[in-house]
Design a protein that fits this description.
This protein has helices at 29-39, 57-64, 77-89, 132-142, and strands at residues 47-51, 69-74, 96-100, 119-124, 146-157, 165-166, 169-177, 180-187. The protein has 194 residues and is an alpha/beta fold. The chain starts with 28 loop residues before the first helix and ends in a 7-residue tail after the last strand. The protein contains 4 helices and 8 strands, in the order αβαβαββαββββ. Strands 3-2-1-4-5-8-7-6 form an 8-stranded mixed beta sheet. A hairpin with a 2-residue loop joins strand 7 (169-177) and strand 8 (180-187). It has a single domain (27-187), classed as 3-Layer(aba) Sandwich (Rossmann fold), CATH 3.40.50.150. Pfam families: Cons_hypoth95.
């Protein structure tokens, strides 16, 4: 597992060992490269939120490609320690924050952590088949966490089903890479449907 492009291109990330078991299922390099090709210039200067961050590969890729900052959140201490090590390997400690939080309890903790104008890019990669994906997506759609032109990238099992529209979020693209499915949503409040 490596950073594909940008300032940390080629940097190898620490991968989860056997002690992590099913806690982490990293997004494949192929899928990550394809998703970032879709996002393209929207990453530069973005304020990124990486939920169920696992190894941190998605948020780290965004930082490498020019994102302004990233907040990584995962519920397991051993996983957040791995993310912290990967952040340090990529030399992004000045632009990254890592938090351990149980995302099943909601996103209220973000109120004190979010940038003034909200997050521009959110990665949401919960355990496949978990009800957590929809719950967190609903919290994002209902809360004030998203910037005016925010994009949310949800990863789940390819056969999963998600709504086309949920509150202020509308799905504008759907992709499948092997067993992984990706739903890309954009913020659709007045004046922000581009």
């Amino acid at each position: 597992m490596r950073i594909i492009s940008g300032s940390a291109r080629g940097r190898k990330l620490l991968a989860p060992g056997p002690r992590f078991g099913a806690l982490i299922r990293p997004t494949s390099d192929r899928a990550r490269e394809a998703i970032f090709s879709i996002l393209a210039a929207k990453v530069v200067g973005a304020r990124v939120l990486d939920l169920f961050a696992g190894t941190g590969a998605l948020g780290l890729e965004a930082l490498s490609r020019g994102a302004l900052l990233a907040l990584f959140v995962d519920g397991q201490r051993s996983v957040t320690e791995l993310i912290e090590r990967n952040v340090a390997l990529c030399a992004f400690t000045d632009r990254a924050t890592v938090l351990q939080r149980d995302l099943g309890r909601g996103l209220d903790f973000l109120a004190a952590k979010q940038p003034v104008n909200g997050f521009d890019l959110v990665f949401l990669d919960p355990p496949y088949g978990s009800i957590l994906a929809l719950r967190v997506l609903e919290c994002l759609a209902a809360g004030s966490f998203l910037g005016a032109k925010a994009i949310v990238v949800l990863e789940d099992a390819a056969e999963a089903q998600y709504p086309q529209t949920l509150g202020v979020l509308t799905c504008f693209d759907r992709r499948r890479y092997g067993e992984a499915g990706f739903w890309l949503y954009h913020h659709t409040e007045a004046g922000s449907n581009d």
